[in-house]
Amino acid sequence: GRQRARLSRAHLDVVNHVLRGVDVPAESADAELELVEAELLIEGRPLAFLAELTSQLTQAQVSVDVEIAGRDGFSTHGAVISADTCWTMSGWPRTTEQEYALLDQRLLPTWLAATLGLRTEGASESEEDLETVLGALDAALLERGLAEARAISSDLDDPLPTTVSALADLPAISTRLAQVLAFERRAWRVTCSWREEDGIGVAALAVIDAGPQGLWQRVLPAEPIGPEPLAPTTLVRFHRLSPSEVFHAVGSLVSSRRN
């Protein structure tokens, strides 16, 4: 049977109302109609896999949240895992919909690697950690956007050297960190949460993917970071990892909790 669907939060709210035998609110009429037209809601009842999905979303033993900030925008993804079931959620920038799909749990690390765009390029030799402070990093990211915009308006064939130079001129930004930030193609964070007897456990991994300049884990401030704002003087440290080390770290993050 069907095990995949592209849904928004509004669609899931409709399914929850239907399963609870509660009238669907008028403001959700469009979402309900979309489910009917997609043949996910037939004669007032959701397909079996959709009912199972909504149940898993609230009763999962382990949840995985993926946040990716790339040059094409911000997207969210994830997975919910129970004893014998795993559902994945794949998102896209500038849309509230995600594709929900049933996945063999054993394939979750591979799915995460594909979602994060992990590749084998980039040298795996060790380097010294890179350090700055949060205020300087924020300033560098702002300057990067300005430098790239200037490069586009100047019609430069290769804007990267100009961007690196502009970032390296900033306080508390080393030339090596400037290279990493200039080449950054995405920054991502994987957060794993699980049920414990006395509450919820959380672990996370945050990485900058700088393409040929390598993969850099942010080790300070350490994950998971709470909702409280961090001071501009907060120390930020990046540690380079090989592609295989990142793949192993992502897999370990979810595999140990899944078991």
Would you give an account of this structure?
This protein is α+β, with helices and mostly antiparallel strands and about 260 residues long. It contains eight helices and twelve strands. The chain has helices at about 10-20, 30-35, 50-60, 110-115, 135-155, 160-170, 175-185, 245-259, and strands spanning about 5, 40, 45, 60-70, 75-80, 85-90, 100, 130-135, 185-195, 200-210, 215-220, 235-240. The strands form two sheets. The chain has a ten-stranded antiparallel sheet, sandwiched between helices. It has a two-stranded antiparallel sheet with strand order 2-3. Helix 5 runs antiparallel to helix 6 (about 160-170). The longest helix has 20 residues, at about 135-155.
Summarize the structure.
This protein is of the alpha+beta class.
Outline the secondary-structure elements.
Blueprint: E1 4-7, H1 9-19, H2 29-37, E2 41-42, E3 45-46, H3 48-59, E4 62-70, E5 73-81, E6 86-91, E7 98-102, H4 108-116, E8 130-133, H5 134-153, H6 160-168, H7 175-183, E9 186-196, E10 199-209, E11 215-220, E12 235-241, H8 243-258
Antiparallel strand pairs: 1-7, 2-3, 4-5, 4-9, 5-6, 6-7, 8-12, 9-10, 10-11, 11-12
